[in-house]
Amino acid sequence: MIISVKNLTKKFKQFVAVNDISFAVAAGKILAFLGLNGAGKTTTIKILTTVLKPTSV
Questions:
Q1: How far apart are CA 26 and CA 57, in angstroms?
Q2: In Å, what is the CA distance from 30 to each residue of 16, 41, 42?
Q3: Domain ABC transporter spans what residues (predicted)?
Q4: Binning pLDDT at 50, 70 and 90, where does residue 50 land?
Q5: How far apart are CA 41 and CA 38, in angstroms?
Q6: Residue 7 backbone class (left: φ over 0; alpha: ψ -120 to 50; beta: rest)
């Protein structure tokens, strides 16, 4: 497993941007994030790249 995320949550004060997501990406696989505006895609990527810290993991 190259990336494994379990129970990731990110809050900005009272606003929940990412709520309890989990996923894993195996070596050689490609993952795409799809969703509406405000769904938490960019926030999740920023957490994975350590630009933001998660509220809980």
A1: 20
A2: 27, 15, 17
A3: 18-56
A4: very high
A5: 8
A6: left
Q: Which two tokens stand for residue 29?
A: 């696989």
Residue type, 20: D
**33 CA to centre of own chain:** 9
* Rounded Cα–Cα distance for residues 3 and 29 (Å): 10
For residue 39 the two structure tokens come to: 């769904």
Answer yes or no: are the C-beta atoms of 24 and 1 closer than 8 Å. yes
Cα separations in angstroms, 23 against 13, 14, 15, 35: 25, 24, 22, 15
**Is the pTM value of this prediction over 0.85?**
yes
Give the pair of three-digit tokens for residue 5. 């995320």
